Amino acid sequence: MDIPILDLRGLKCPLPVLRARKALREMPVGKCVWVEATDPLSAIDIPHFCAERGHILVKFAEENGIRRFLIERGGGEG
Q1: Cβ atoms within 10 A of the Cβ of 37, count?
Q2: Residue closest to 60 by CA, chosen among 78, 75, 43, 40
Q3: CA-to-CA distance for 48 and 26, rounded, in angstroms?
Q4: What is the pLDDT of residue 77?
Q5: What is the pLDDT of residue 78?
Q6: Catalytic residue among 6, 11, 13, 56
Q7: Are 28 and 57 in contact (CB under 8 A)?
Q8: What is the pTM of this model?
Q9: Pairing of strands 56-63, 66-72
Q10: Is the peptide bond before 14 cis (omega within 30 degrees of 0)?
């Protein structure tokens, strides 16, 4: 199963969260997406967004300034 990648590298707060929110709204519940971001605040903002909106942060990794989040679409509004 290929998991799509949402490339948000180079975007500054609040754009990574806003773009992730839009992408998740268009996905069915239970599907996953990789979100890649370079904004240091994304390490705080995206996990908070997931918790607030009912999505599951399955995995987080950081390497060479790129933060990768594996997010499973929850049943919230997006």
Answers
A1: 29
A2: 43
A3: 20
A4: 66
A5: 61
A6: 13
A7: no
A8: 0.94
A9: antiparallel
A10: yes
| 73 within 8 A of 44, measured Cβ to Cβ | no
pLDDT of res. 45: 97
Q: How many residues does the chain have?
A: 78
13 is catalytic: yes
Residue indicated by tokens 């709204």: 25
Place of tokens 């300034």: 65
Phi-psi region of 11 (alpha: psi -120 to 50; beta: other; left: phi over 0): beta
Digitized pLDDT (tens) for each residue of the chain, 78 residues in all: 699 999 999 999 999 999 999 999 999 999 999 999 999 999 999 999 999 999 999 999 999 999 999 999 998 766
Cα-based distances in Å from 25 to 15, 22, 42, 65: 15, 5, 19, 27
